[in-house]
Structure formats: structure tokens, C-alpha cells
Amino acid sequence: MAKRMVGVLAVVGLVALLQGCGGSSSGSNDAAGGSGTFSCDVAAPTHGCTEWSWSGGAYPTGPLSTACTQAGGTAGTGCSHTNSSGGCRLTQTNGGFTLLNTFWYYAPMTVAQVQAACTPISGATYVAP
Known about the structure:
By secondary structure, the protein is α+β, with helices and mostly antiparallel strands. The chain is 28% helix and 33% strand. It contains 3 helices and 6 strands.
């Protein structure tokens, strides 16, 4: 089930990256200015939350919100770390723009299981809650 959750949130993350590349901001949820955060919390089949934080420019959150809702998630501005076993973080930079994407895992996943889940993902690092 954890693999299915990662798959769902990976799709949301891919949509986010594709929507955010090279385009201008659109929609009422856009984060104007130089930095911001967005999250997508999905409770079923297992609890997981993807969190994006960025700096160096505006990032369109309207497509993120739509993709999150379509995946059965709840859009927000940050993931809870309560009962979290940690997360896998990827960092992407393009010029002066930096995007951090962290997928947070929750109990019953253990710290060791989360660390093992991060290992095969190129460039991912484990982040403690």
C-alpha cells in the first residue's frame, strides 16, 4: 500500500513540476512573491503527505490544488509531522529558483522503512520529522 501512496503523490508531484516549468502563474491560489509552501495530504489507502516549498519566484499552486483533490487528497500549506516517521526530500534548482519536494511517511512506517524507501530514489535524502 505504501507503494500505491507514493505512486499517487508522485503523479501529483509530476503534475506540479510540469505545470510549474517555464510558465507564468495562473489561478487564484498562486503564491506571489519570492517563496511559499503547498501540501497535499492523502489519508487512504495509507497516510502520506507531499510538501513543496520554493524560493526565488512565484509558483502556480492552482494546478497543484486541482491535482491533489483529483487524487483524493486535501490541499494545504504544510504537512503535519505528528506521528511522522520522516520524509524523502528532493531538491531541484533552476537558475535562482529552488524547489524542495518532500514526501512525508506516517506510522505504521518506521524510520528504517522510510530511510530504505528513500534509498532507490536518485537524489533523495531522508529528513527527520
